[in-house]
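Contributing: when you submit paired examples, paste them exactly as shown. First protein:
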Amino acid sequence: MPAAPLDEADGAEDAVEEPETGPLRRCMVTRERLPKEVMLRFVLSPAREVVPDLSARLPGRGMWLSARADVLERAATRGAFAKAARGAVHVPPDLRARIETGLQGRVRDLVGLARRAGQAVSGWQAALEWLQKGRVALLVQASDGSAAERARLVGLRQVPAVTPLTGAELGALFGRDQAVHVAVAPGKLALAIAAEAARLAGVAAAAGSKGRAPAGGVPPALP
């Protein structure tokens, strides 16, 4: 999905006043309406600090942003949160770092859940066997692994791949020091991992995080 131009946050109040029902939410900076799964929700703490609500379950009126580094920067520096909240707010200086850390944690949890459910395997040979049998909906590959090796495993297969975690982080989920390739079977967990990886890639895009997948605004298309 092409990135929308950044408008002034004049419509922030309107965006936050929209009822939080239905599958779409309006970004208070770009004004585009997107599926809530690919966006970021924020609420205010009792001390009026902006808090990322990555699971979209915290109480309070939600403020929604597209999961893009430039949008987050604009909201934090141009007063979008204060306009939406209709009053002074505190935007933590490490807000983006908090979001990245939180999203990485969500990816780890989901990949770990897929492993325990028998829906994910790690290692070149195991991933290749699943690919050959058509059992793979998503490849989660180490962000610090060899790009050439990652591409060689995928070959000409039309399998989406994301790189949200390092080899050590992936390895820890499978009881090993390193894991470069994790194959995930079709299902809700693959969809959820793809969505969280896309949000992480969007937020981390301008940070130059090593090996991160390019931001896309929407999760990779899964079979």
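Second protein:
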Amino acid sequence: MHIRSQALLLFLVLVTGGGLVIGYITLPGEWYAGLVKPSFNPPSWIWTILYILIAIAGWQVWDRGLSLPQDFRWAQLALNFLWSPTFFGFQQMGLALIVIVLLLITIIGFIKVTWSSEPVSALLFVPYLLWVAFASPLNVSLWRLNAG
């Protein structure tokens, strides 16, 4: 197998696998099941698709040796992996809101710095941006509906 293909496979395994492991460790459980939820509560399977797109975009900027996009990619991945433990594990919806807003900023930053040099990677992050832009008000709604 060619080194580029191996690197892509590694990105897919690490990003998707890491996301699935975090998701498994922080399964919503009884606490989340007992929350009042807004009518626009989405399915969780969407994350698998997003992790695949994130991995491919990350591999592309790594393969091209683009350092600034990598910085944004690592930051968004860390914030992405931090959100579930903050929200589900520690049940800190307000703190999770701060994490998701920072995540949104890093996703926008990634798209902005890759748009001219690696437009495919930027476009691969657009569904992720849309999802997190949707998930942010969901986080706010859950926090407001269940405060107190």
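If you have annotations for the second protein, write them as plain sentences, like these:
The mean pLDDT is 90.
The chain has one domain: 3-145.
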